[in-house]
Amino acid sequence: MLFGSSGIRRRYDGDLVTLALRVGRVLGEGGAAVALGRDTRATGPLLANALVSGILAAGGTVHSCGIVPTPAVAFCARDLDTGCMVTASHNPEQDNGIKLFNPDGSSFSTDRQDLLEQKLTGESYAGWKEQGRLLPRDARTPYSRAVIAGRHVPDGQKMVLDCGNGAGCTVSPALLSALGVRAECVNCNPQGRFGRPSEPLEEHLLHIPPLVRNSGAAGAVVHDGDADRMMAFDARGRYITGDRMLILFARYLDAKRVVTTVDASMAVEEVAEVRRTPVGDSYVSRELRSFGDFGGEPSGAWIFPRHSLCPDGPYAAALFCEMAGEWDIAAELDDIPGYPMIRESVRVERPREVLSLMGATNPTDGIRVQGEDGWFLVRASGTEQKVRITAEGKTMERAKFYMEKGRALLREGKLHLGGRKE
After folding, report:
1. List of domains in the chain
2. Which long-range contacts (CB under 8 A, 24 or more apart) does 15-19 make?
3. Does residue 89 carry a catalytic annotation?
């Protein structure tokens, strides 16, 4: 299976370069116009050039955006055929990959992913008279203008901003400044190595709380490698979990209908009508086409359908700054309903096979078991050799109970895999 829950993502090697060339050929078929961007990884230029070669060889046109956040590429694609981003998102620097977007900003559906994968073995190229074109494209300016036009922040507000040395460095500092935010920037130079692990988890951001408290900031906003994610801290320096951020955004936007994933807290159902999808922004964005005022995942991927169907870290950062100017975020968080939740990642060889043996129709969607006072979810990671277990209960005792149920189900699946004849 080539695509995971968020595009193609894997350890960089020669096969990934060859794959990029082939993907480019498919994207350029019929003279298609493609917006192409990349994050700051050292292997980005090579993979971007391989994609360019494939697109041009198929007769397509490349609108080259350079280093920009993923949502800027998706925004740029609205008047083209496809958006293509070279990134491994929150994975470490040694990984890289490809994300693909429709003109409305949504990720390729599984059907379109399957069709692209089927075409990869083809060898048809345009003749010398039909070669494509490579054009420079400023994706940052129109994207930033669109974000700025929709948000309003009190002038002079202080905020800590950590871009993780990723693609957000090229947009978020200037964007927040244009909104009147006085940002204390950390890891905001777009070098090819990350100053911290790219995934914006609390344990990767221990430097943020003292910065917030010592600077008197209203909080902090944090991006991953391609800035499709945004996580935050309140003015007390407290990390805001994805589940609480989901509810905070829903409340502020007065979103009556929310789309989120099967691993999100049941507390969101106390503030809005909710539809749940499998884990992955492509599923959330697809559902938002017909239902919902706002959507997102606890991982920090927030989708604002009136702006775009792509998860948008800089937009979410601007919105959070606006909220912090109107609300006492810390007090709002204390008022949000919440239940104990436990998340665990287990390294497993052949995780997809294990989940299939457990009875999952789609291993990355996983198996979710709902009880009267809680639930658990066991699913294969779409990008790593891991199985992720999530459990939530009305009390910590019940959350631990459901977590053990999930662990037991995983042990049974691994036992079946070990006993299966090859």
Report:
1. 8-139 (3.40.120.10), 341-419 (3.30.310.50)
2. 16/47, 16/96, 16/97, 17/46, 17/47, 17/50, 18/50, 19/98, 19/120
3. yes
